[in-house]
Amino acid sequence: MTASGQQMTVDPAQSLRSAARRTRAVGTALVGPALVFVLAINVMPAFYGFYLSLRRVFFFGDEGFVGLQNYTALLSDPLAWEAIGRSLVFSFGALAVAVPLALLSAMGIRRLGRWGMVLLTVVLVPWAMSPIVVALLWKWILVPSPGGLMGSLFSALGYPPRDLLTDPVLAMPTLIAIAVWRNFAFATIILAGGLGQIPNDLYRAASVDGLHAWESFRRITLPLLMPSLLIVVSMLTISYFNEVQVIIGLTAGGPIRSTTTLAYQLYHTGFVELDQGRGNAIAIVMFLINMLLIAIYIRILGRQPGGAT
Amino acid sequence: MRLIHPSRRAVLQMGAAALFAPAIARSASAQGLSGTVRIWTFLSAEGTSPREVVLRELIQGFTAANPGVQVLVEPQPFQELETKFVAASAQGRAPDLIWMRDTFLSLVHARGALANLDDELSDSFRAEVLPDLYQVFANKSVFDGFRTSLPLWPSPAQVIFYRKDVLGEVGLDAPPGNWDAFVPVAGQLTKGDRLGFGLPSNDNSVSSFVNIMTGFGPGIFDAATGRFDVTGPEAVAAAEVVRQLVANGALSRTLLNAMGDDIQDQFAAGRFAMAQAFAPRFQQYRNIAAAYDPAQLSVAPWPAFGDRPPAALLGPYWTVGLSARSENRAAAVAFLETLYTPAASLQWSRVAGLVPDRRSVQSDAFYASPQAEVIRIFAGLLDSPGALTFPQNLPDITRVFPVMNIALQELIGTDEAIGAILGRARASLGW
After folding, report:
1. Can you tell me the ipTM of this complex?
2. pLDDT per residue over A30-55, tens digit each?
3. Which terminus of chain A has a lower count of CB atoms within 10 Å, N or C?
């Protein structure tokens, strides 16, 4: 730029840099408040939780720094490893049922036209219910003694009523079924949207080439649905791994710890035993496991044809 | 005539007098009590259960006598009262009065959340009411001269509710007072869908296993540490009782998740002949009885081992404390004292079927009436030779009941050796 008295010439590069700075400033100003909010309610409590996990905190009294003692006590406790195992069983068991069920529902919704909307509404009802309400509802359905719906049905069919929630073998599968019933609608919606992104021309072309339905599904639908599946599997894994309200409402971790997942162990340690230090240590461990699972999904599913990476 | 126009200052003074005079008059007549008294309890001022009805009547009476005071009841889940109170106290938003279970008193007191009631109660209350309470409960609230709370609704806490009609089927008026006789009777009472005995096995506020152990008397608790021997002979004997009850069908091998409320509901539906229950819920059990005549409901102490007297475990029970951070101590303590008047004690009895806090009230004709039959039984248990309380400093109180409940579930639902189950429980507690 030349001195005054002469018409100033603007350096295009500098002009672009100024414009970029202004754009960034505007963007920061718009995003900033939301970012501060997220930091305040998500990130800062997480750091505070990690801080508490390094201390002995019992009944809301901070009794001092204990280093990694909460973690070593947790990881040397065989019951904690059993809880981790149950969490994985619960998560993957629920996924194995929820994902195919959601995919079938999504395909049904897309093919049934107007009746598809009816199906979607039916599927959405459990998702809209509070988890504790779901737990109480199923608790009364599954009561075996006179008054329980399931018990009455069994009796009407001539079978003795079976208490699914107090059988150490059947309690976990029962909880898995209820958890899937409650929230596979979320996966249905995501997958329905993903199915809508697949061009119909591909299916027409496949039909012309003589591919039958299963081959079309395997070669066209599944690969192109991978991004949606990645989202669904990731979100459902987090949801099922952290599921606790249904367990609290239905089995309280029993019978004989058979439904004590790591999430329930966290609740029990922090809110029943009131050992907030160790409870926060469990929370940190759960966070790390969640991140590990998500990273594995991204690596496996993200590299599939049509995937995100 | 010349009109006198008052000055602006005079107008303002007259307005203030008109505004505050009635309040001052009321305040004077109410001995200076004013403001709001916040109470945290599991009861609701709008509830319909017998205890809630009485609480509402007491509040109405208190506010009528003290119109400058507003009493605000903020119901909380009963399992969370102590923890929420301590957290709120640390944050400066604690209520004035708090309902607490006696087993948590030492923890709450250690956090400095409670005021010393001996410094706050009126002279008349200390002289006349304190000596008139059941001392076994009143003394337990005192830690090194610091009175943390006042006991409310003295009761034998965990008792056995039973149906007289069902016991009559085997020719008995009441359950046997000794485990050797109780176990076979419980087995005989199992018929069809009905089980002889119902135990909450997953309720973190009680331990059925410890209740069975109380059949050995208060000596099961170490005087110095407050612990009990989880693998000792008394615990083994209690475990064997459980196994015997399962073997003869009195206890269901599949009823492993039951909480106190579940037992209550299933008892009402006729699923049990006898059940462990919380004594103050007697009226509630009667009110919801659906599968039997409520008049057939009665109460018994826990059986004992050997020739010991039947056991009556006096806890956990409820106490009421004053927050150390209360900003309206005068009104809060005044309301607290009204819970213990002779009229209030009589009301708790008449409406809610509770043993009166004031022992002297038991001379009233009501307590000799048929309606007070169960109250007489409760009062008798309180004074019985088998009555015992938990130690004042029961260690690991937040873990003892859950750990022993797991052990109970394993005893009921598996065939694992008793020694292994109890050893695992002991290891979990770190005792």
Report:
1. 0.80
2. 888 998 998 889 889 999 999 999 99
3. N
* A273:B398 CB<8 A: yes
- A-B CB pairs within 8 A amount to 70
Which among B86, B271, B428 is the nearest to A59, CB-wise?
Answer: B86
How far is Cα B243 from Cα A140, in angstroms, rounded to an integer?
A: 29
B173 at A interface, C-beta within 8 A: no
Candidates A42, A102, A122, A37; CA nearest to A235 is A102
pLDDT at position A205 = 87
What angle in degrees, to the nearest 10, is found between the helix axes of B418-429 and B233-247? 130
CB A278 within 8 A of CB A52: no
pLDDT tens digit sequence for A202-234: 888 888 888 888 888 888 888 899 889 988 998
Using CA atoms of A206, A209, A212, A217 in order, give the dihedral in degrees to the nearest 10.
-30
> Higher model confidence: residue B422 or residue A212?
B422
Query: What percent of chain B stands above pLDDT 70?
Result: 93
Pairwise CB contact (< 8 Å): B257 & A271: no
Contact B152, B320 (CB under 8 A): yes
- The pTM of the full predicted model, rounded to 2 decimals, is 0.82
In CATH, the number for domain A72-303 is 1.10.3720.10
Per-residue model confidence (pLDDT) at position A119: 84
Cross-chain Cβ contact B87/A166 below 8 Å: no
Residues 6+ apart with CB under 8 A from A97: A176, A177, A180, A184
Instruction: Please list, residue by residue across A130-139, b when 16 or more beta carbons sit within 10 angstroms of its beta carbon and e when fewer do.
Output: ebeebbeebb
Give the least confident one: A19-28, A62-71, B237-246, B265-274.
A19-28
Residues 289 to 348 of B: which have CB under 8 A from any A CB?
Answer: 291
Which helix (H) or strand (E) is A13 found in, with range?
A: helix A12-38
Residues with Cβ within 8 Å of A203's Cβ and at least 6 positions away in sequence, in order, are A216, A220
How far is the alpha carbon of B31 from chain A, nearest alpha carbon, in Å? 38
Q: How many helices (H) and strands (E) does chain B have?
A: 17, 13
Question: Tell me, what's the pLDDT at B26?
Answer: 38
Interchain CB contact of B266 with A (< 8 Å): yes
- Across the interface, of B270, B398, B409, the residue whose CB is closest to A274 is B398
Interface touch B409/A254, C-beta < 8 Å: yes
Q: Which 3-state string (H, E, C) describes B354-379?
A: CCCCCHHHHHCHHHHCHHHHHHHHHH
Among candidate residues B273, B92, B267, the one with its CA nearest the CA of residue B167: B273
pLDDT digits 0-9 by tens, B85-121: 999 999 999 999 999 999 999 999 999 999 999 999 9
Read off the amino acid at residue A260: T
Return phi, psi of residue B146, to 5°: -100, 110
pLDDT higher at B111 or B3? B111
Residue A126, both tokens: 């459990």
Domain spans of chain A? 14-65, 72-303
The share of chain A scoring above pLDDT 90, in percent, equals: 44
Q: For residue B30, is pLDDT > 80?
A: no
| CB nearest B413 (choices: A252, A255, A272) | A255
A275 CB neighbours in chain B (<8 A) are: 398
If one counts every other C-beta atom within 10 angstroms of the C-beta of residue B185, the result is: 21
Is residue B154 within 8 A of residue B137, CB to CB? The reply is: yes
**Cβ atoms of B211 and B277 closer than 8 Å:** no
